[in-house]
């Protein structure tokens, strides 16, 4: 899986459970009447669309974002409409899954080049000479 489109093709969203609730915060009467807050629950270990290797990778990478050790819980309440919040939540879910599948590049240690060392020493010499010229003559 390389992109969000690849994740969308897997239809992982079908295994998610959506719940709605009343949003908190400012919004006047709309907040009191409409359930615009949307919550998403996705159990990684019970997913039938993910392979065992993918499940292990997600559980390992997303362990700090999981509830009850295997469940992803996300919520969205920024917009006034439930439909818009659900769309925003889906995008958030796809990005989270994509970040879980990303493999970090291995850092290759490198040495400082001779030219860089020489340049640094030259600049130190010049600074030293400038400081020598600032001294008082006795």
CATH topology, what is it called?
A: Double Stranded RNA Binding Domain
Note the overall shape.
elongated
Label the structural class: alpha+beta
The Cα radius of gyration reads: 27 Å
Strand content is: 5-15%
| CATH architecture designation | 2-Layer Sandwich
Biggest pleated sheet: 4 strands, antiparallel
Relative helix content: 40-55%
Q: What is the top-level CATH class?
A: Alpha Beta
Low-confidence parts, pLDDT < 50 over ≥5 residues? none
Number of domains: 1
What does this 3D model show about the protein?
The chain is α+β, with helices and mostly antiparallel strands. The protein has one domain: Double Stranded RNA Binding Domain, CATH 3.30.160. Helix content is 45%, strand content 14%. It is built from five helices and four strands; from the N terminus they run αβαβαββαα. The protein has helices at 4-9, 29-33, 52-61, 82-101, 114-134, and strands spanning 17-21, 37-43, 66-67, 71-76. It has a four-stranded antiparallel beta sheet with strand order 1-2-4-3. A hairpin with a 3-residue loop joins strand 3 and strand 4. Helix 3 packs across helix 4 (82-101). It is elongated and about 85 Å long. It starts with a helix and ends with a helix. The mean pLDDT is 84.
């Amino acid at each position: 899986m390389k992109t969000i489109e690849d994740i969308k093709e897997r239809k992982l969203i079908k295994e998610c459970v959506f719940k709605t609730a009343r949003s908190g915060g400012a919004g006047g009467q709309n907040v009191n009447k409409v359930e615009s807050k949307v919550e998403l629950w996705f159990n990684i270990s019970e997913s039938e669309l993910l392979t065992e290797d993918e499940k292990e990778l997600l559980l390992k990478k997303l362990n700090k974002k999981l509830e009850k050790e295997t469940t992803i819980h996300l919520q969205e309440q920024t917009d006034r409409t439930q439909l818009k919040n659900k769309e925003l939540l889906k995008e958030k879910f796809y990005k989270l899954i994509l970040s879980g599948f990303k493999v970090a590049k291995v850092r290759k240690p490198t040495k400082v080049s001779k030219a860089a060392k020489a340049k640094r020493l030259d600049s130190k010499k010049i600074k030293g000479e400038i400081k020598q010229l600032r001294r008082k003559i006795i």
